[in-house]
Fold these 3 entries.
Entry 1:
Amino acid sequence: MVLPIVAYGHPVLRKKCEDITPDYPGLSELIQNMWETLYASNGVGLAAPQVNVPIRLFLVDSKQMTDHFDEEERLLFGDEQGIKQVFINARILEVNGEEWPYNEGCLSIPKIREDILRPQTLKIRYVDEHFQPHEETYSGLTARVIFHEYDHIEGKLFIDYLKPLKKKLLRKKLDDIAKGKVEVNYKMIFAKV
């Protein structure tokens, strides 16, 4: 089932999310619904708070990007393979490498894209949907998508990395999103402002 996506301005997007246990009610159905929602909205990552569930869960499918690289992207990112993975109770252990800009967007902040600086690599500990533990290092676009989704479970948004003047210039667009004055091809939940 495709779930509605929470829009900018909703308080759940600013909540630091809680860890869960394997007996979390309806977890496998939630994960399945999140995958369906991700693909229906043409995303590459989706965090539980974006579907109004404040838990430490997010999905990443960076294969969609890496499998369709053009020549220029191949030169920039080499043979990066991408992943399709569920991350539960994730904790970033370390970050490394030069920060580099990339034009990011967010399903919860539609029609706004900005260049955001993020480090090249990250090391992360998490459990998968079967609660099997993992400790992995990711780089490139996959690391960027993980950073972005990880921020969601920490109550952060990509616009938080913008300089104050840039954020001020986006204020009207952000206010319009919060008020539901935005057209997208997926269902959204708006804050009551």
Note: DSSP finds five helices and nine strands in the chain.
Entry 2:
Amino acid sequence: MIDWRGYRIEIAYCRSWSPSFEDIYGYAMSHIEVRTIEPERAPLPITETGYRSHFIHEPVVAEHGGAEAVVRLMLEDAAKSREWRELEESSKQFSLF
């Protein structure tokens, strides 16, 4: 579980999602699941639904320091988008409508 900009996010990590892939290629294919817990199902810059399933080569996960570090990097990178900045800004403003 991590806290990112006020969002509580659950991260599930499976180091080797497919033993066959690992047998063939010599390294694991990892699977990372990201869920917004609080606020529940809130959109994130990497998902409009509050859930993201992501496959990634295990050596990349290790190189970046683990699944949590990879998710934080994904979030920070995606948060640079104009769409996310606008959504974040509009959620801070009070609306009567």
Note: The chain has a mean pLDDT of 93.
Entry 3:
Amino acid sequence: MLRGRDQVLDALDELLAELRAYAAWENSTLETFLDAFAALLGSIENAYVNSGRPVPDDAWAVVADAVRGARFYE
């Protein structure tokens, strides 16, 4: 199981692989992705509550989840 910074690096590797495979993202431009990333990170506690998951104690895990979620967050 990945921990700490490695979780974020793994999430970024996943996103890069998806981009290279031409995956369809709702936030497919850098501008919309960064906007969604900022919005999601700003309300991440609600995202965890809404999905029935506890907020991780590890801030790196939260960032990794926000990076992954920014692909589709509105």
Note: The CA atoms of residues 40 and 47 lie 8 Å apart.
